[in-house]
Design goal:
Elements: H1 3-13, H2 75-86, H3 109-116, H4 131-148, E1 152-154, H5 160-177, E2 185-189, H6 195-202, E3 206-210, H7 220-226, E4 231-237, H8 249-258, E5 262-266, E6 286-288, H9 291-294, E7 309-311, E8 323-327, E9 330-334, H10 354-390
Parallel strand pairs: 2-3, 2-4, 4-5, 5-6
Antiparallel strand pairs: 1-7, 6-7, 8-9
């Protein structure tokens, strides 16, 4: 039987509705469809015996209480449904995770084991019962501070884009406190992540794009031309989205500071410079750090992100709440505006992504300073290996990533 005949026979044996999902190899993986839980609804069917309940009177003003319309299924149906869904999950145990730059793709089992030690914590526990957890948060912040050279770390942002929002909000608060609320422009290079201009716009700023040179870096001349007393900040990624180190970053920082603006750095590619250079030495005032991109915490498929933000001394007074403080031999949380009146306030419920904090700190401590430096060196080396493999596929032979 020829290959084409085999494929034809395969199609003939498939259900007519499934014919379009037959793959070249004949694999029927695309035919495995799991109906949504609501599509399996059988009114009145339930795996739990609920007592008869009356909705009674309304206790929230004019808001009426209603049944929320959960689907009716038996207990075996529910178990089988979610088991089948779990078998579709893709993870490190089943293959390479193909999510581009959005995850390190390596989630060490050691991290998971350590995270389980804290699995029974609750964010509303009394402070005296969670001293170890607060020490973990403080320790991670200390590592991030040392790695960036910036004195304050906002731990509560829930992801990279949320960290950007936090950073721009602190910059806005700093300008307002200094009577500089006329500054309404944020400069964004066209090599920036798409969330950068979106974040600036969300905070009410006008976004002005700075073009790139032919080699993929910021056009410093165009940047200097755009700088004036109405500029609040620049949002720049380094290494940038093209995978290139901004060689003129110190000059860029000096020019931005000369007009009274702040330098926000997107830390998405921090893993390429970690342990090799301190962002503070480059003139950076504010930078979010994606724990999943640099410190191996799981992400993707809706998994929890975490985007701590490193802040300079000028921006530190505006750090969001809550903050961990160590006073008189114990840790406590600064949670109220009256304790830190200059804070931009709370931007997330509770204290941040605790599970991600534990995993990231475990990763850092298992590597040490020299190991984290090697992580950066290996990341750049691996990127250049891939580039070398792709030469001849339309890439210029003289390009070097993170060079």
């Amino acid at each position: 039987m020829t290959h084409s005949q085999a494929l034809s026979l395969k199609r003939d044996t498939n259900n007519v509705d499934d014919m379009d999902s037959t793959t070249f190899t004949g694999n029927k993986g695309l035919n495995i469809e799991e109906k949504l839980i609501f599509e399996q609804d059988t009114p009145g069917l339930t795996g739990v015996d609920w007592p008869d309940m009356s909705l009674g009177t309304h206790h929230i003003g004019t808001l009426a209480r209603e049944c929320i319309g959960l689907p009716g299924l038996s207990e075996p149906q529910v178990v089988r449904h979610y088991t089948r869904l779990s078998q579709k999950n893709f993870g490190i145990d089943s293959g390479f995770y193909p999510l581009g730059s959005c995850t390190m793709k390596h989630n060490p089992r050691l991290n998971e084991k350590v995270a389980r030690y804290f699995a029974d914590l609750h964010p509303l526990q009394p402070i005296q019962t969670v001293q170890g957890a607060l020490e973990v948060i403080a320790s991670l912040a200390d590592w991030l501070s040392k790695l960036t050279g910036l004195p304050a770390i906002a731990m509560s942002p829930a992801a990279g884009a949320h960290g950007e929002l936090c950073g721009i909000m602190t910059i806005q608060a700093a300008h307002n406190a200094a009577g500089q609320n006329h500054r309404n422009i944020v400069l964004v290079p066209d090599s920036a992540h798409g969330t950068n201009p979106a974040t600036a716009a969300a905070c009410g700023y006008t976004v002005q794009t700075i073009k790139a040179t032919l080699n993929g870096r910021v056009d410093v001349g165009a940047l200097k031309t755009a700088l004036n007393e109405n500029v609040a900040a620049i949002m720049l990624t380094n290494p940038n989205t093209c995978g290139l180190f901004e060689r003129d970053i110190v000059e860029i920082a000096a020019a931005v500071h000369a007009v009274g603006a702040y330098f926000y750095c997107d830390g998405a590619n921090f893993n390429a410079i970690m342990g090799k250079v301190l962002p503070a030495d480059l003139g950076i005032d504010c930078m979010h750090i994606n724990l999943h991109k640099t410190f191996s915490t799981p992400h993707g498929g809706g998994g929890p992100g975490s985007g701590p933000v490193a802040l300079s001394a000028a921006l530190a007074p505006f750090v969001p709440l809550p903050c961990v403080s160590f006073d008189q031999g114990s840790y406590r949380l600064i949670e109220h505006q009256y304790e830190l009146p200059t804070s931009i306030g709370r931007i997330k419920g509770f204290h941040g992504q605790m599970g991600m904090f534990i995993r990231a700190l475990a990763y850092m401590m298992s590597h040490g300073h020299d190991g984290l430096r090697q992580v950066a060196e290996d990341a750049v080396l691996n990127a250049n290996y891939i580039l070398a493999k792709l030469k001849g596929e339309g890439l210029q032979s003289n390009v070097r990533l993170f060079h």
